[in-house]
Write a structure and sequence with these properties.
Structural class: alpha+beta
Mean pLDDT: 79
Shape: elongated
Number of helices: 2
Order of helices and strands: EHEH
Radius of gyration: 21 Å
Bound molecules: zinc ion
Largest sheet: 2 strands, antiparallel
Length: about 100
């Protein structure tokens, strides 16, 4: 049997423990179909061609460059799942996340 543990707190999620799955999908919000006339300006075309060739060369794969598309999956315990729903982006101060509802 596959062993599951909470990706946030490490709690053992072996059944009958409640396990919640969170799927996260992120992607660059650039749609080539929505290019405007400005985008087709010669400079931009050259710029994009440059970018594309750099991407092909793998030279723009610096640590600052996030992937265009990213899918992640997390297994969470009930407590961390509730927490996640309340604050999906972790904007609350860490100290406020330390309270125990149990
Ligand atoms: Zn947890």
């Amino acid at each position: 049997m596959r062993h599951f543990s909470c990706d946030l707190c490490g709690k053992d999620l072996t059944p009958p423990a409640a396990r919640y799955v969170v799927k996260l999908e992120g992607f660059a919000a650039t749609d080539p179909a929505e290019l405007t006339d400005d985008d087709l300006d010669e400079d931009h075309v050259a710029e994009m061609a440059q970018l594309l060739s750099e991407m092909e060369d793998g030279e723009s794969d610096g640590p600052e460059e996030p992937p265009a598309c990213s899918k992640q999956r997390f297994d969470l315990c009930a407590r961390c799942y509730r927490r996640f729903l309340k604050d999906p982006l972790g904007r609350e101060a860490p100290s406020r996340l330390d309270f125990s509802p149990n």
